[in-house]
Amino acid sequence: MKKTKIFSAAAALAAAPIFAGVYGDLPDAKHAWCVHDRNRPNPVKITAEAGMPPSDAIILFDGTKETFEKNWCSAKDGGPTQWKFVDGVLESVKRAGYIATKQSFGDCQLHLEWSAPVKVEGVGQGRGNSGVFLMGSYEVQVLDSFETDPAKDPNPNPNYADGQAAAVYAENPPLVNASRAPGVWQTYDIVFHQPVWDGLKMVHPGSLTVFHNGVLVQDHWEMEGLTTHRKRRPLAPHATRLPLQLQDHGNPVRFRNIWIREIPSRYANVTHGGPAADENAVMALRRKTAAQLFAKIEKPVKPTIENMEALGEVIGYAREGAYEKAWQETANAFHDVLDKMTDAEWAAKKTELLKLRETLDILIRAGVVPQKCGTRKRISAAALRLGWEK
User: What is the mean pLDDT of the segment spanning 153-182?
Assistant: First the structure.
């Protein structure tokens, strides 16, 4: 298998950079942007009304037969499923087999609602059993676990912990049992990230976060294997997009309000912090931003406050080559300008000069400009002389 290609969706939406001023700590080896950097791309705007799917969600089932037939098929052969469409809900049918989405997905946010049968039959795994299979390989258990209560002796519905409702099946029990009574609708909100592979080598682990009825029950659990029963089955590479599946385990479990959002891999961000930050990618983006900003300066070596601010922003991204040369030449020429200014001229530019000193302080703190910066020294001396210091 080829190495999974990961990317940042926000990067594609990046606008041409603007001069926003040096405001927060500068980029470094793991961060391509300053703190509070206005050039960092803003996320896409969506709508998210209470009780409604987000506007960027893919609706897999909304209570209509149309979405059922459009989006779901038999997981076995891709043909029509024998699951029931009853009163606006999907109901699993014994021996009908799993159902699968016709569309394939990878990393995602998934919402669905489910209900165990009102008529309670069996015990443990025999009660309202189904499952949500991310990519067909990672199961979040669906089960009537309402009466599974270790505080009671005897436990009214004993079961193994890694197989009750909201467990990552055969791996990790839920943090708490948030189950509702049989026949009452329950919700799962799942954030899923698949493992990232380079050939047969796993580069980054996958994870599951699950909210059961609004309660956190799986907290970024890193999957240890592919779902199985009674045995441990190691993780293995697979396609990066596969159908979502719902399990037929012989019980008439119902489902409704199913939607999914495709999300980037946790490891897609290689340019600004996070577990996959890559120094080469970070530096490449810093250089790109510096080049775009530098190109906007009409006369880079003109000794003005505006140019000092602009060049300070440029070298904050990348102090090298032409940017380094322009900064040195402009700063030296600006010293001559400052040395010739009258007190009245200093007073007229007080706000801009103090702002430039703040910029220099940030550059000095990051080691981009030396501690003994001539420009800062001159501004501070004038501020002291003219009573600007508080």
Answer: 96
Q: Is residue 100, in this structure, part of any structural domain at all?
A: yes
Q: Which residues of 3-28 are buried (b: 16+ CB within 10 A; e: fewer)?
A: ebebebebeeeeeebeeebbeeebbe
pLDDT for 57 equals: 98
* 186 domain residue, yes or no: yes
Per-residue model confidence (pLDDT) at position 14: 58
In this structure, which amino acid lies at residue 81?
A: T
Q: Is 335 among the domain residues?
A: yes
Rounded distance between C-alpha atoms, residue 271 and residue 277, angstroms: 5
Cα pseudo-dihedral 18, 22, 27, 32, rounded to 10: -20
- Here the tokens at position 94 are 């014994």
The pTM for the full model equals 0.88
| 288-307: average pLDDT | 95
Backbone angles phi, psi at 140, to 5 degrees: -100, 120
Task: Looking at the structure, tell me whether residues 335 and 236 fall in a common domain.
Answer: no
Task: Look up the domain containing 344 and give its range.
Answer: 287-385
CATH number (domain holding residue 177): 2.60.120.560
Q: What is the C-alpha separation between 237 and 280, in angstroms, rounded?
A: 27
8 A C-beta contact, residue 261 and residue 107: no
pLDDT tens-digit profile of 250-268? 899 999 999 999 999 989 9
